[in-house]
Design brief:
Helix content: 10-25%
Number of domains: 1
CATH architecture: 2-Layer Sandwich
CATH class: Alpha Beta
Bound molecules: adenosine monophosphate, zinc ion
Strand order of the largest sheet: 1-2-3-5-4
Number of helices: 2
Radius of gyration: 14 Å
Strand content: 15-25%
Largest sheet: 5 strands, antiparallel
Oligomer: single chain
Shape: globular
């Protein structure tokens, strides 16, 4: 989608600190981190939110889900991590391209909550 911030990041039209990328997903650092490590994992194709998923999306959703702990460990979160997915206005979603927040370590004293 031409007007979508995260589509532009996936396409390389807007700079981001990308830490992982494959045929299905891209992971980059959140521009306003809420924890010492704060990453966003997004599908490479445009999907607004969890509200738009059907059973036909199971394959790539499973891939992203299975990659989350790998990416977390590769970014230093060896003792676990928090995953957050905001859905719709009531869920506080600000960017309408599905994204999985990966946060850690949330035990850090300076963590501001999420
Ligand atoms: P949400 O409220 O779940 O839609 O979260 C959107 C997230 O995108 C927020 O945590 C923002 O800090 C983050 N964000 C917004 N613009 C950018 C950007 N250009 N690069 C990286 N992260 C961004
Ligand atoms: Zn998009």
């Amino acid at each position: 989608m031409t007007d979508c911030l995260f589509c532009k990041i996936v396409a390389g039209d807007i700079p981001a600190d990308i830490v992982y990328r494959d045929d299905i997903m891209t992971v980059f650092k959140d521009i306003s981190p809420k924890a010492p490590v704060h990453l966003l994992a997004v599908p490479n194709h445009h999907v607004e939110s969890l509200n738009d998923l059907t059973e036909e999306d199971a394959h790539w959703v499973a891939h992203i889900t299975c990659m989350l702990p790998v990416i977390a460990r590769d970014n230093g979160l060896t003792e676990g991590f928090r995953t957050v997915v905001n859905t719709g206005a009531g869920g506080g979603q600000e960017v309408y391209h599905l994204h999985y927040h990966i946060l850690g370590d949330v035990r850090d004293a300076n963590w501001r909550g999420f």
